[in-house]
Write a structure and sequence with these properties.
136 residues, alpha+beta, two-stranded antiparallel ribbon, 4 helices, 7 strands
C-alpha cells in the first residue's frame, strides 16, 4: 500500500544504541501527537486481549551526522514542515518541561541535534531528506 504521506526519522549515527532507541521513541511520539489521524485502530489478539493502537503507516529511519541533521531541519522549515527535534542537551534532563527549556535556550543554528522527525507529503519528505541513507 502506498501512502500519500511519509513519516521519517533522522538519527545521528554516532550515538550509543540506547540513545538511538530513546530518540526514536520520543520523536515518534511527536509525530503521533501532531498527527493523531495517523494512529490506526486498537489491536486485539485471538484470545480477545486488547492492545494499544499504533501509527498505521511505516516509519522510515535514516542515519547521518550532525551537519546533515541541521541541513534536513533547514530544508523542512523552508518547505513549511514542522519537525520534531531531539537535542543532545535533552539527554541530561529529567522531565518534559526541562526538555523544552533545553531547546528554548539555544538558537536554531546552534542546536546540537541528535534526531528529527517529519511527516509530510511523500515528495516533500524526499526533498527534505535528499542524499540521506537508511540507518544501518
Amino acid at each position: 500500500m502506498q501512502f500519500d504521506t511519509k513519516i521519517a526519522l533522522v538519527i545521528r549515527s554516532d550515538l550509543e544504541a540506547w540513545q538511538k532507541l530513546n530518540v526514536a521513541a520520543f520523536l515518534t511520539s511527536g509525530i503521533a501527537a501532531a498527527f493523531p489521524e495517523c494512529i490506526g485502530e486498537p489491536y486485539q489478539d485471538g484470545s480477545g486481549t486488547p492492545y494499544h493502537a499504533l501509527i498505521g503507516q511505516p516509519i522510515l529511519i535514516y542515519g547521518t551526522d550532525r551537519a546533515a541533521l541541521s541541513r534536513a531541519l533547514e530544508r523542512a522549515l523552508a518547505r513549511n514542515v514542522t519537525a520534531a527535534v531531539y537535542t543532545e542537551d535533552m539527554f541530561t534532563t529529567t522531565h518534559d518541561a526541562a526538555n523544552r527549556e533545553a531547546v528554548r535556550a539555544v538558537a536554531r543554528a546552534d542546536l546540537n541535534l541528535v534526531g528529527l522527525a517529519v511527516r509530510a507529503d511523500r515528495k516533500v519528505v524526499d526533498k527534505i531528506l535528499d542524499g540521506l541513507k537508511f540507518h544501518a
